[in-house]
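User: Can you fold this complex?
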Amino acid sequence: MMDLEPHVISNLVTGALLVGIALIARSVRRQRLWREAATQLWRRRRIAILVVGVYLAIGLLDSIAWKGGVPEDVVDVLPNAPLTLIDRAFLGSREASYSAPFADVEFYGGDPLRNPGSHPLGTDILGRDVLYLSLKGARVALLIGGLTSLIAIPLALFFGVGAGYFGGRFDDGVFFLISTLASMPGLLLLIALIMAMGRGTVSVCVALGVTSWVGFCRLSRAETLKLRELDYVAAARALGVTEIRIVLRHILPNLAHLIVITFVLMFSGLVLSEVVLSWLGIGVDGSWGQMIDSARNELSREPIIWWNIAAAGTALFGLVLAVNSVGDAIRDVLDPRTLKEAP
Amino acid sequence: MRARSEAEGAGGRVGLLSLVIVCFVMSAFPSGCSNNPYPPTREGEKVLYSSFVDAPRTLDPARAYNTRAHAITGAVYDTLLKYHFLKRPLELIPGLAVSLPEKTELPDGRVRYRFELRRDLLFADDACFGLDRPGQRTREVVAADIAFQLARIADAEVGSPVIEPFSNIDGFQEFSRALTARREADPGFAARPVHEQYAELGGIPGVRTPSSHVLDVILHRPYPQIRYWFAMEFSTPVPWEAVEYYDGRGGRPRFDDHPVGTGPYVLSEYSKRSRYVLERSKNWYGVRHPEWKAPAATYPSEGEEEDRLAGRLDYAGRTLPFIDRVEVRREKESIPRFNKFLQGYYDASGIIKESFDKVVQEDALSPEMKARGIALEKAVSPDVFYIGFNFDDPVVGRAGGERSRKLRQAMSRVIDVEEFTRVFNNGRGVPAQSPIPPGIYGYDPDYENPARRVDLERAKQLMVEAGYPGGIDPETGEALRLTFDSADTSSAGLTKVQFYVSAWKRLGIDVRVEATNYNQFLEKLRNGAHQVFESGWVADYPDPENFLFLLWSQMGKSKFGGPNATNFSNARFDELFVSMKTRENGPRRMAEIREMLRILEHERPWIELFHREEYSLYHGWVRNVKPMGISMPTYQYRDLDPVLRAQRRREWNEPIVWPAWVLLGAAVLVVLPGIRTYLKERQ
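Assistant: Here's the predicted assembly.
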């Protein structure tokens, strides 16, 4: 098997993601229910959707990388290192240390900058452009939210739908597992898992995924209990359709709205959880959480260094607010109980 | 009419209630509105106020080996030898001993140091001496108390961290092994008090007490540095009664938390969570026998020119101590701690990096600080911080031969320490050229290590010579990948490491950081599972041997569990070290040190970073502050003016009450209508 380099895998995943988004868009267009929901969603939360789109675009731009094409005078880049579009946009932007937004000189000492006036959000203690770091954080946040949801939601669906549909000992077992997990302090379990697996993006995502599926599992179990008693499920069973097929064809599609709502709402919670982990020193490198953590002591400096924490905080706030806002709207348009006409 | 009179009655009650509230709040304002954390009754007393972050794990002088513990043990326990308070480089003077030890070379290559203990020395008053004779509160210190403490260091059950240097004492290891073996073989023996066990085995053969006040320490090989160990609390006299009495049973504390010594202060109060108090010991020989004019109990009359200018010689010849009480409070956070110093509630402080620019401007105190009468004291610590390479690693270590050597040399030439200290330490720190810090014999201020000169072009050339042109590893065709192990997982710590990583990136080296907790980091070092790492060393005593031993092969971490985490071994270096170690200071020793430094220039087991520069602030009412560098408290030399302090505290902490009045007014305006409405509705 061919040994693919990480940046090639990243490019392929990005490509697959783009194709996936296109296919979903096409599928949404074809089905009336989803098309109408999307139209209502756009009408209700136009700005929030655009904001999420911008973050997604930044994340994608930071996922497409290739080697070469680095000018010779740029010294702080590894040879043969794949650089993303965002990396390339900020090549050679590094200064010696702190500089304030749009400053011409260093914050301490007053030495002239290599790139005067070109740092709209200033630079950090190592002279790295804060705008660059904030943009890089977007990909990390999307990765944490996305990858973790991809771990937690299938896990929750497997146990929740299985317990709800089949009941019996499987249900008892799942409930025991849920009760056991729910009785453990979540943060301690998270820390223990990360310590056991080692630091890193994947470890953090797995740990967050393992500790955040319980809620949705309960919900999907309850929904499945209701769905399995409905006429069309009974009819399918009477016609001799296999249990697995019933689950896949008749139960899961009716949970789709719950999956979408949970994904969106879980996403922002996971991004915020990473900030807590960074505070505890076990976050993901390059995340906004880590930026906030390293900037907190700078707030007590005199004169104060405010731009690091302000940039990371604003970026985080912007994403979480936009995603929550979109999530609420999705729930409004998809959940029959909260469904209401567009204004 | 009735309704009206009820309303009037309600109004009257509201008025009365408001009056009560206002009187209550007003009564609290002028009398109790103060931020002073100390009782006013102590204002006129000579009490030094200080702070600590975390309490030490132990105060047992055989085990305590950090600054936190030494802040207490150094004041409570006295030693045979002490350091001169003002002279630099540090110089030994007699402490509990009448004079410096007499050295005699014995015919079989052994060396004897004879200490003569002062007579009529007493331990601090303590209930433990009732074991000897009921009602007794103290007793005289004898040479056997020091022999007892040395036996405790050899006792494996005590777990002393300094067994290695004391192993130079004749029969030390044998005694240790015999004690362990006997305890294992004979449970009855093991159950007896430790002093009886030591006595039954005859004590350490190389520690003899020919008379009650003479202690002979016989070394099986020359080791001149042993004298420094007799200036540390490890070798202080310890009464066997204290070890036996304070066993943690029957409501008694453990010996770890209850020191009983011969020092100028006693620990009168000890709460690990809140504060501890040291009070002048009435039994200290300096207090009981001022007529002796003992060197370590009398303020020195010799010092440096700088001491004369700073007024540190004004107290020459006066008997110590000057301060009656030291009160040390727990302060976990640095910013409140520093603010309390600025308010006058702590007498001395370091400078937190967050306030550095407010306090220090152009390398001197800011006008604002000067106006408050604050003084600044700078001192370079006898320590060294470095990046180390593991010589057991195939890429950066000895197996790579010349190739690895060139790689280490290249990596050494791109770390700009001046820039590092400027960015992270407000410029505090002296760039290290060798392992030997200023103030230690062998340090040469004019020496410039060519391998530590920042030179990117030369470094790139060295990378080519090492076989990594442009940082490309020919085996993979990618950037050479190395791992940097860090024991600091905090974002601030990782940012510092990124400074080095970025510097190496310029050579095309891809250094990945593996941050683990301290225990995991130590485990990695023990197992040799590290490549590049950062570490530091603070002097135990002022001798180059205490730094160069960090690179001696016999101290190798993976083979011998020693502190040489680089596992560096070089036959010539070892030979020179062994010779230098036992030699007195002089031209030959200096020549050997020079040659060792040249080997390090070439071999590069370390990238020397910096020696810390300590900036201490103290208020104008505190006298006689001079940093010692090594971990040793100097409370007994300090003095202060409590009247000036009380005056300054009042001036600096004048309560600003108008915002409280405004708030009170606003509260009354908001609350009164509420009360009125409530009373109306009740009717």
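The domain at 54-263 of chain B is CATH 3.40.190.10 (D-Maltodextrin-Binding Protein; domain 2). The two ends of chain B are 15 Å apart (CA to CA).
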